[in-house]
Design goal:
By secondary structure, the chain is of the alpha/beta class. Helices cover 45% and strands 14% of the residues. A 7-stranded parallel beta sheet has the order 3-2-1-4-5-6-7, sandwiched between helices. The C terminus is likely disordered.
């Protein structure tokens, strides 16, 4: 039911994890792919996997915090394909794990630059294309850290709250012109980023972090990147034609009803 035949999907942070899984999903649904990342080697590997499927792929190495580089990847996509139908504004970094009193200021600035300014610049340069077309769908990658506090990750949490705010503002501005903007909020997903965080928290036994956190998730496990990709494709499809300014949570029920949290009442 989800068909992107001959449509163009532009994906930042597309070389690994959720970005890679979403690129493969779009390709399976018939889309042409513009793949953006700063990891050139991983970008080439993902492009090769897409090429094996017969997908038309454009790749560009870019820093999403630099407006000229964002404008360049948008320009290259238009030169190659002539349009942008779907934009998965996904690039992000996690920063360090430390209390606010010990958090490094330089790292804080880096996280906000990638996770907030990068999202803003993507919207800034892609939305005019979609407005000229009179149609398009954007999905920004937020996180459940944009909905609740995550102790030890002040920069990441602040940045993902900001992504949800930008999503709502952008939706209000462009939806009257046929362009939809939504956000996806993954919980812990079995990706390099989540594994790195676990190793920082518990270098001697990172598996203990997953076991402990999984115990708080009603579904009892970490999610898979493909499960997030499925939601992104839905939000970009005509099935979500009345959905804009929303944030879709993909967290196994963690924020809705965390296991281990109990209430008591007096009889």
């Amino acid at each position: 039911m989800i068909d992107f035949e001959n449509q163009v999907a532009l994906i930042t942070g597309g070389a690994n994890g959720i970005g890679r899984a979403t690129a493969l999903a779009f390709a399976s649904a018939g889309a042409h792919i513009a793949l953006i990342d700063r990891d050139e080697a991983a970008l080439a590997q993902t492009a090769a996997r897409l090429g094996e499927r017969g997908t038309t792929v454009l790749t560009a190495v870019a820093d999403v915090t630099r407006t000229e580089q964002v404008a360049d990847y948008v320009g290259k996509t238009l030169s190659e394909f002539g349009r942008i139908d779907c934009f998965f504004n996904n690039a992000g970094i996690e920063g360090q794990v430390a209390p606010i009193t010990e958090y490094d200021e330089t790292v804080f600035d880096q996280v906000l630059a990638v996770n907030v300014k990068g999202i803003f610049l993507g919207l800034h340069h892609v939305l005019p294309v979609m407005l000229r077309q009179g149609q398009g769908a954007v999905v920004n990658t937020a996180s459940i850290a944009g909905l609740v506090g995550t102790p030890g990750m002040s920069a990441y949490t602040a940045s993902k709250h900001a992504v949800i705010g930008l999503t709502k503002v952008a939706a209000g501005e462009v939806s009257p012109n046929g362009v939809r903007v939504n956000a996806v909020c993954p919980g812990p997903i079995d990706t390099r980023m989540v594994r790195d965080i676990a190793e920082r928290i518990s270098p001697d036994d990172p598996g203990a972090v997953e076991r402990g956190y999984s115990a708080t998730i009603p579904l009892g496990r970490y999610g898979q990147a493909e499960e997030v990709a499925n939601v992104v494709l839905f939000l970009c499809s005509s099935l979500a034609s009345n959905v804009t300014g929303a944030q879709y949570v993909v967290d196994g029920g963690r924020t809705a009803s965390p296991r281990g949290v109990t209430t008591s009442r007096s009889e």
